[in-house]
Amino acid sequence: MSDQLRNIVTLSSFQNLHDRLARWSDCYLMNTCDQNVGQCIEVLELNSKLQGQMFHLLSTIAMEGGTYGGCDSIKRRLLPWLAQGVGRGISQDTSFKLLSEAALKDKEFCNMSDNYQMKVQELEAQLKEMRLNSGDLKTELDETRNELHVTKKTASGDLIQTEEELGKLRRDLNHAQDEVRRLKSSSLLVDDYESQMRRLRNEINILRDEKTLILTGVRPAPRVPVEIEDEAPPLPHSHHHHCYLTGPCDTCPSQIVRQHTLLNRFNELYTRARLDAMAALRLSSDDSDRNQRVIHQSVLDTFREVKLAFRQYKLRVRKALLPHQSVDESLDEAVRKYVDRHGEFHEVFGLKYHEVEEIVSDVLRSLNRNPIISYAPHLDYYDLKPFVRKVVELSWSMQCLHEPLDVHVGLEDELIKDSLYRRSFDSDYSSYLVHHYVWPSLVDGHGHALAKGECETRKAGELPKSRSRSASRRARSISPRRHIKCY
Fold first, then answer.
1. Which range (23-27, 157-161, 375-379) has the least confidence?
2. At residue 471, what are phi and psi to the nearest 5 degrees?
3. Whole-angstrom Cα distance, residue 102 to residue 99?
4. I need a surface site. Which of 59, 62, 443, 466 has the fewest CB within 10 A?
């Protein structure tokens, strides 16, 4: 008996039954119904074989105990179990219940298997889609990498080209700086040449004045040499004095020459045009005092009208240059340069012919409205047109200078100003009251006289002297080309 029991333990039959039950439990859900039924039958067959061995072992043990060995335990335990437990275990109700539960479990298993297959298919579809997307992303990544590589190559080429251009610009800048330094050195030489030219012009003017004084005996109008720094002084001459101007024309020789020319024209206007105008007025009136007043007043009115016209001209020039103004210079500087270049071109840029005629007409109307010098109603000042036209042209040119020139406005019955006027030959030198003015004085912007005027002085209530010898003596009267003190 002990050998049989040892064989049962050694074969591990019950352990095999347990392992088979465990494997069946693990793969139960994955098996089909037929597979599960076959597994169950195999377990039952193995169990029946084990029960047969156990009954055989029970019979052997009972035989070893004799005729009545184990009888009591068999009666009390085995027989009741065989009569009750086995019968209940194989009843019809129990068999139907087991079959229904097996059908339900089989249906649930089929449903779970279908759901599992659907989920697996969905996961496979998603996996395939993700693989496609990953392929697209990989393609885009490769394209981006290629574009980045091309951009890097292009940027490196542009950088090299930019560095080359920068090097070229630096070389050009160095050349330009060298050229500027060379031009600066050349400009210094030009300044030296200009200073020498100005010095020579001044000396030539001095020599010309001396020649005129020696040949004619008449002292010319004072010339205005330019003061030049760090240069030798002009040649000393005991019989000639110079006037040094102040203002913007100091550094501009053209302005000095223009001013000197205008002074000569003003003196010529006194010596020639004034006498012609007096002769024309003498045909209409023999009153010499009134004729002199008319000439003097016509010059004053002409300068006043020309100043108004020149102010309008500068406003037109300013308005025309305003849209084209540059940053390098101011608008006033541009207007001044334009006037310097084009102001005296009467028929093109400056004072036009019709404007001259308008100014002449305004001056004549002003003379007609003046109650002191007006003639009879049947007389007019038409004969003064040539004289007024010459005064208009001269005064316009004087307004075009950097420092415009003007005439002094004097009042009758006031004390004579020796710095501005000289007495006429027929004046009463014992009186200091101005009876009337013969010719205005020319002054600069500071009020300093450049050419003296002429006036006649008389005592209060004194009658005018006889003019019988006036023509012969006045014909010999000189222009105001006499020395004046310049400031």
1. 375-379
2. -65, -45
3. 5
4. 466
CA dist., res. 164 & res. 434, Å (int)? 84
Q: What is the rounded CA–CA span in Å between residue 22 and residue 174?
A: 98
Q: Do 387 and 298 form a contact (C-beta atoms < 8 A)?
A: yes
Whether residue 249 contacts residue 255, with contact meaning beta carbons closer than 8 Å, is answered with yes
Backbone region of residue 217 per phi and psi (left: phi > 0; alpha: psi in -120 to 50; beta: other values): left
Query: What tokens were used for 458?
Result: 């008389």
Three-class secondary structure of residue 1 per DSSP: coil
3-state secondary structure of 484: coil
CB-based contacts of 460-466 (< 8 A; 24+ apart in sequence): 460/433, 462/428, 462/431, 464/288, 464/289, 465/426
List, for residues 193-218, the tens digit of each pLDDT value: 777 787 778 778 777 776 766 666 55
Question: Going edge to edge, which strands form the sheet with 449-451?
Answer: 406-407, 442-443, 449-451
CA quadruple 17, 20, 21, 27: dihedral, nearest 10? 180
Residues comprising the chain, all counted? 487
Q: Which residues contact residue 356 at a Cβ distance below 8 angstroms, ignoring those fewer than 6 apart?
A: 346, 389, 392, 393
What is the DSSP code (8-state) at residue 439? E
| Torsion from C-alpha of 392, 394, 400, 405, nearest 10 degrees | -100
End-to-end CA distance of the chain: 165
User: Which pTM was predicted?
Assistant: 0.46
Burial of 480 (0-12, 13-18, 19+ CB in 10 A): buried
Question: C-alpha distances in angstroms, 444 versus 247, 401, 406?
Answer: 10, 11, 6
Report whether 296 contacts 372 (CB < 8 A): no
Q: In angstroms, what CA-CA distances link 379 with 41, 300, 427?
A: 163, 21, 29
Proportion of the chain above pLDDT 70, given as a percent: 73
User: Which residue bears the tokens 């010059």?
Assistant: 299
Cα–Cα dist 234/232, whole Å: 7
Centroid of chain to Cα 215: 65
Nearest alpha-carbon partner for 300 in 248, 238, 372, 240: 372
Selection from 160, 228, 170, 237 nearest residue 199 by Cα:
228
Q: According to the model, what pLDDT value does residue 202 have?
A: 75
Q: Which of 225, 275, 273 is nearest to 250 (CA)?
A: 225
Tell me the DSSP string of 214-255. Answer: HHHS-PPPPP-PPP-TTSPPPPP-TT-------SGGGG-HHH
DSSP symbol at 480 = S
